[in-house]
Amino acid sequence: MVVEIIITSAIVALAVFILYKNIKKSTSGQCNCGSCSSSCPKFSAIKQKK
Amino acid sequence: MVVLDSKRMITAALIGNPNVGKTTLFNLLTGLNQHVGNWPGVTVEKKEGFINDNVKIVDLPGIYAMDTYSNEEKISKSFLESGDVDFILNIVDASNLHRNLYLTMQLKEFNIPIILILNMVDVAEKKGIKIDYGKLSKLLDVMVVPIVASKGKGVDKIEELLENDIFSKANHDNDIHYQNDVHFKSEAETYKYIEGILSQCVTYTSENTVTITERLDKILINKFLAYPIFIAIIYLIFQFTFSWVGQPLADLLDSFVNDWFVPHINILLSGANGWFKSLIVDGIIGGVGSVIVFLPVILALFLCISFLEDSGYMARVAFLMDKIIRKMGLSGKAFIPLIIGFGCNVPGVMSTRTLESEKDRKMTALLLPLMSCNARLPIYLVIAGALFKGHEAVVVASLYALGVIVAFFIGILFKNTIFKKDDEPFIIELPEYKLPELKSLALHTWEKGKGFLRKAGTIIFSVSIIVWLLSNFNFSGMTEIDKSFIAGIGRFISPVFIPLGFASWQNSVSLLTGIMAKEVVVGTMGVIYGGNLTKILPTVFTPISAISFLVFVLLYTPCISLIATMKKEYGGKMAMFSVTYQLILAWLVSFIVYNGGNLILKIF
Amino acid sequence: MIINEGVVMMSVYDLKPGQTALVSGILGDEKLAKRLRALGANEGVKVRVKSFAPLGDPIIINFMGFDLAIRKRDAKNIVVKDII
């Protein structure tokens, strides 16, 4: 029972966190579509400068 | 070899005509080390990438000249004047030097060393064009590097030149002078000068043979065949996606999840509490699983559209559609953002930046969400699979077509009311056809698959959890789904859908969650109706109400990503207008479909 | 831009598919004119009408080695002479 409750809390926390980050990302206008085409202006991968 | 100051960044500006392989070269030089942003003050995208730690490449938009008033030309000009550029990488089409060198002449005005990259030298050779690179280099006073970008040949020479930085201004201060000694008074003069140079270093050894492009175009834009062929191509795409590859794979995935995965999980969890089991099976698997099974279909469709885009056929489509689009006051160029919109509305709206008039841009952006995006596919498929099994392709194709038809009429409506304006001049270049590189297609499709899975793993996962929570609890604790929070929310909204025939609280709430991302509608339904939607949905919908529902999904407000993009590109008022008009439109058309449909059924 | 008095001015609009002529000049909207000239449509350049769209508009013309689709209405602005 305890294990289940811990896992559930973790899952719920993760879900809320993901949603929050997602809304923040969307309203700041970043691409969020997961469906990028080759002519999408945002089609890119950002790699850290070494 | 000059010793570099290790902190100094060399910046090269990549510039050239459209359709000469600039993007291919940019991708080759920078790999995945790319970053896309905005030029300050204008809505033109700025693409930067790195070859290594020292060399930065800025990809400027494809332009023909520096002085014909477009935004792209203005920012290119100011960037080159800014003093930040050490090299100009001017990429030109070796088989079309006359026109390409016009820009080169203008670039010489900026007093920055130019590396002239002759791309597609293989095509030039085939056409019988022989170029003396040494002479060209001397006459133009630029470095000349021949390459074949699509095959990666010769690109290392460019990297070498940049890294060695032998010619950069910083190492030579002001004693080397890169500008033109001749200043041209008109376009005609410039072309005469170019002709003079080329006549000294280019020879033509064979007659102009009919190219493959010309032969293809004889058929593809033929007076009688063009439209039937276009429709046939669309039909083929749908067949490929739904009958031959996409759907069968999706069905396989579906039975894997429902008939193998779920029972196994049930066994694994057999000792656990009922509610925990429900969270995992009904919540997570029910939600995410309902959406993931459609990955094959989405990839199949995407593959087809990418193929068309890369082949050059899309420009022909814009050409074919121009007259029809003109009735809406737009130009054929608007067609391309609309086609992109069929994949995802968000990049579609962003690519409206490429249209030349503000009114064109706004109008296209408003019509874009009517282009049914990939995210709506799972909804169509789940309902079509449940109620119209065997006819999924027809149902989906009709929805896509309906979106286009509605857009056409709304376009005309807008043109005569909100967007009265004159036609802009319309010129579009028809590039050579090319066979899309398999590697590049595969890469893009894989990226897209990753993106879809990422979305499933994040938003759909999260919303499914939230929905599960809301559907199992209310103010007095854990409860039956019928008395839960979510049922309450659903019942509050559902009256609005009664005239449309699908007013269950479950449907209402699912549509609401669709604002997060359209795929979530299926995820939510998966959670609150229980996992096996194929069996349950026929009990909730009649064929007519199912169609009415699908029409509503097609036309109503898309996801927050799109609303946010609209706001960013066109302002809050435009975004609000878009949301509102679509809700009203969706409601009205669904109303007509539902009631009209029932009426017809009664008569027969 | 040369206008010959007494001689009727022909434009690309008047050409039929397959016909070639020499550019004489460009009239009309300055933006369009500049764009066309930058693309190479200057005096003395050969311009060929390749075909019309199935619905009659736009039309495909070829000059300086590449194909361009342009609306008939805008093609009226490209004045030509010496039809070949």
UniProtKB/TrEMBL annotation, chain C:
Pfam family, one: FeoA
Domain of life: Bacteria
Keyword terms: Iron
InterPro entries registered for this protein in UniProt: Fe-transptr_FeoA-like, FeoA, FeoA_core_dom, Transcriptional_repressor_C
Annotated ranges, domain Ferrous iron transporter FeoA-like: 10-82
Keyword Transferase found: no
GO molecular function, one term: transition metal ion binding
Keyword match Lipid metabolism: no
Protein name: Fe2+ transport system protein A
Organism: Thermoanaerobacterium thermosaccharolyticum M0795
